[in-house]
Amino acid sequence: MEAVAQSELALAAEQAQAGATDAGPTMKVARHFLADRLVRNGQPQRALEVLAPSLAALPDDWLLNLTRAEALWAAGRAADAKAAAGRSLGNASAEETRAQLVERLAAVLAS
Length: 111
Description:
Blueprint: H1 2-16, H2 25-40, H3 44-57, H4 62-74, H5 78-91, H6 95-104, H7 106-110
Helix pairs in contact: 1-2, 2-3, 2-4, 3-4, 4-5, 5-6
C-alpha cells in the first residue's frame, strides 16, 4: 500500500502544477503508475476511476489502454479488457512495443 500512497502523492503533485492537463505526458504517466499499483493491490475499479480523466483526453493512448485492459481484466470484465488491449496494440507505434504488449496482455487477448 505504500507504493499506492507514493503514487497518489505523485499524481497530486502533477495536478498542482500550473497548466497541468490530463492530456499532458507527466499526468498520463502519473495516472498510469497509480492505476497499475491499484490493480496490483486488488482495487481495479479505483484504477479505472484514476485513468478516466486521461483516457477522456487521450482515448487512443497505448499506455493508458494497457493499464485499462489490465484493470478491466482484474475486475472480471473480459470482453471490455480485450477491447482495451486491442486499442493499446493498435496504437503502439513501435513493433518492439507491440511485441511487449502481446506478451504482457497474453491472457486478456486469449480470452
